[in-house]
Amino acid sequence: RMETDCNPMELPNNTGFEEDSDYRDFEGTDVKDMRLEAEAVVNDVLFAVSNMFVSKTLPCAEDVAYINVETREKNRYCLELTEAGLRVVAYDFDQTDDRLQTPYHETVYSLLDSLSPAYREVFGNALLQRLEALKKDSQS
């Protein structure tokens, strides 16, 4: 075994990385996390929009992912997902416009609610149906 100048107390517990891992592997893990977060966002609201998918063109990074969405009104947006939330960064798929200063939304629901009346209607109807189903279940 090779000796290292590393104090084991300085390392976080349960890192799960083998000794021969290098930084690139670690970075790759973080990238997957933000992409997974973006995929979860898409899966949550896909039923209420015309099209939505994580961008394969724009780079995902440790702290950012991009999501393309087309509303039922046929408007296209590119959304940026970061720790700060979601915001519109362009009015087309796979684009970013640095001049756009759009507000961050804490949730995808809030963002889509502000962009798409049809989203609001479909999401509201789905919610009502779920509540009706719960009501029936509790009565039986």
TrEMBL record:
GO terms for cellular component: cytoplasm. One of its GO terms (molecular function) is kinase regulator activity. The lineage of its organism: Eukaryota, Metazoa, Chordata, Craniata, Vertebrata. GO terms for biological process: regulation of canonical Wnt signaling pathway. Residues 34-134 form the GSKIP domain. This is GSKIP protein. Belongs to the GSKIP family. InterPro entries: GSKIP, GSKIP_dom, GSKIP_dom_sf. It comes from the Eukaryota.
